[in-house]
Amino acid sequence: MMKAVLVGCGAMSKAWLDAARQVDGLAIAGLVDLDAERAQARAREYGLSGAVIGTSLDAVLEQTKPDAVFDVVVPAARREVAFSAFAHHCHLLTEKPLADSPENARAIIEAARRAGRVHAVVQNRRYIGNVRRIRRFLDSGAIGAPTSIHADFFVGPHFGGFREEMAHVLLLDMAIHTFDAARYMVGGEPASVYCQEWEPANSWYRQGSSASAVFDLGGGKVFTYAGSWCAAGFRTSWEGSWRIVAERGSLIWDGHDGLKAEVVLPEREGLLDKAGPIDVPPLDPADRIDGHLGIIKDFMHAIETGTEPETRGADNIKSLAMVFGAIESAETGCRVAIAQETQ
Fold it and tell me: Where do the domains of the chain lie, and which CATH numbers do they carry?
């Protein structure tokens, strides 16, 4: 039986606990929150009568001696939680983003390396079926190597609260899902970015609700992102709307169930190459999906087998670097080089 302590009992903790109770061999040994009543309420809601409740992570870890910490705190507290987890010899699974700054991200990854602990991030868009199918299809070479990746994200949620007051709200709070999916689907290594943010007249956010970015993903691959969190009408999926152009064809995905591809045929109609449909194979039994549940299972498997989880922090930092690179570009008006973080 693997024991875990969950720290941060806000709204997002429900997704974690919903998933955790479906995993055989996993026990939630403790719940930690600055608000003890909130932690107690979560314990009652999920029938965790035996869980230790506390406001101090160190104290609860000392009492429960768990194998892992589940970090669902605000990003500004992530470094402190990570250092505490590793000091108590715990593995760490953290909500996205990995950290609130590049410096803190690197510090957490180095601390995990020194402690010899598994560290992973809940980058759950990778665990969507069509994302897996696209990666497998592109890897097959059926339409050649991808060259141009385009993602549109247009949704208009009225969150209220902190999001409507924060800076760089789209890039910092949401765009990493799209950036990570792009990097994963085409095997990209981000090298540079140019980004512009703006605040449309119809926006109800303070700053950064709309952005457009162009990334160099290396190997001749360019990724364009266009997004808005104040776009009314014709909204995209929360996963965005995608077009991937490759050497011998293209693939489009509406972010829902609409996924199709065409391959160039050996003939032309006037100026244009003819193209015909090509099947995108279904999910393979080996494909890991199911969002938080899939990631928790992957994390536990890595601990049990001594392997690395797919969303390990040392890889996820590359997607986080895309976010901070885009923010720096938007602030300076310049193209920004993205550091090549090592895995």
Answer: 2-117 (3.40.50.720), 128-285+320-337 (3.30.360.10)
